[in-house]
Amino acid sequence: MDVMATGKSNDDPRKLREILDKAAGLATDHSLHSVVVGLAAEEGDLLFPELVDYVESALRMDDAIFRMTRERAVLLLADVAQEGAQEIIGRLCSGFNDRFARLREPAVRFSFFEVKPNDGEVSVKRVLPALFSSQLH
């Protein structure tokens, strides 16, 4: 399904900064952990946009998703440590696979960046390479 046909497009880049600012604020102001999750699929993967839509529909109020490209997204899981984030991602993927019977599961790579209290600056230049540098072609 074409991105333009679904009406979905990449998010405004300012939204990513807002997501990272939220994670930094939770860590600094409330001593809460959060996890920024990178989701990446192969170019042209037709199931990935559907998975992102499903994840977005299942998010809690404090969580957020940023669509970088058709095959990449960044997810904020607020007030959770990395182990909890991995469990959430596992449940979301299982739910997607159970709910939408497919010929194959989406081939998605997940990477995690935990934002901890007193962990320093949470910047785009720090987070994105940590999430996607090993996945660049």
Low-confidence stretches: 1-7
Individual helix count: 5
Q: How many separate domains? A: 1
Task: Trace the largest sheet across and list its strands.
Answer: 2-3-1-4
User: What integer is the average pLDDT?
Assistant: 87
Question: Structural class given helices, strands, pairing?
Answer: alpha+beta
The CATH architecture can be named as 2-Layer Sandwich
SSE ordering: HHEHEEHEH
- Radius of gyration, in Å, reads 15 Å
What does this entry look like structurally?
There is one protein chain. The protein is of the alpha+beta class and about 140 residues long. The protein has a single domain, classed as Alpha-Beta Plaits (2-Layer Sandwich), CATH 3.30.70.2880. About 45% of the residues lie in helices and about 20% in strands. It has 5 helices and 4 strands, in the order ααβαββαβα. It has a 4-stranded antiparallel sheet with strand order 2-3-1-4, sandwiched between helices. The chain is globular and about 45 Å long.
Keywords:
137 residues, alpha+beta, Alpha-Beta Plaits, 4-stranded antiparallel beta sheet, 5 helices, globular
Write a concise synopsis of the structure shown.
The protein is of the alpha+beta class. 44% of the residues lie in helices and 20% in strands.
Summarize the SSE layout with pairings.
Elements: H1 3-6, H2 13-30, E1 34-41, H3 48-58, E2 64-69, E3 72-77, H4 82-99, E4 108-115, H5 124-132
Antiparallel strand pairs: 1-3, 1-4, 2-3
